[in-house]
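Ticket closed. Logging final result for Protein CREG1.
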Amino acid sequence: MAGVLFLCAAALLLLAAGGAVPPPPPPEEAARMARFVLHNCDWGALATLSAQEGLRGHPFANIFSLSDGPPEPFSGSGVPYLYLTDMEISVKDLEINSNASLTVSLAQTPYCKKHGYDPQNPLCAHIIFCGSIVKVKDSEVGLAKKALFSRHPEMENWPKDHNWFFAKFNITNIWVLDYFGGLKIVTPEEYYSVKP
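Final structure:
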């Protein structure tokens, strides 16, 4: 028993020191999988409805850095935080219509390459969130700042005259693709009630 505890402690130390991504939850735990994938991803594809001339009303996807908390394993709030500026093209879209979708995939971690999974293979899990982008309230700025700057330290030095602000993805719908047989639907209540 002591040997097993030692191995578990050693694995956690390796993970905390920047080791490999821990194994994902089993496919029957879709809510945990959604939390796991988000927590282990540093960026996602955010799709908005374009407000740009010539593209108005069309889908427009863009890459954004994100974080749900510091990178320690088995932690995270589940809330996707972003650091945005009104100068960004997708943010201009969000000013007209705050609805969006956010896709995150284990393809950005070493996990899928290690197992030889193509990013489109369902075993290389990805999560699609639907909802809206909202500015965080003053009471939540500290959480958002810690979550983002712990994973994206260069953000602290981005030009101050760009008027950066902290925002979050307000989740209303969640789809999980982590195994064969199609998407699984997870409610926000199920999602927030589990740990990654």
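The radius of gyration is 17 Å. No further action required.
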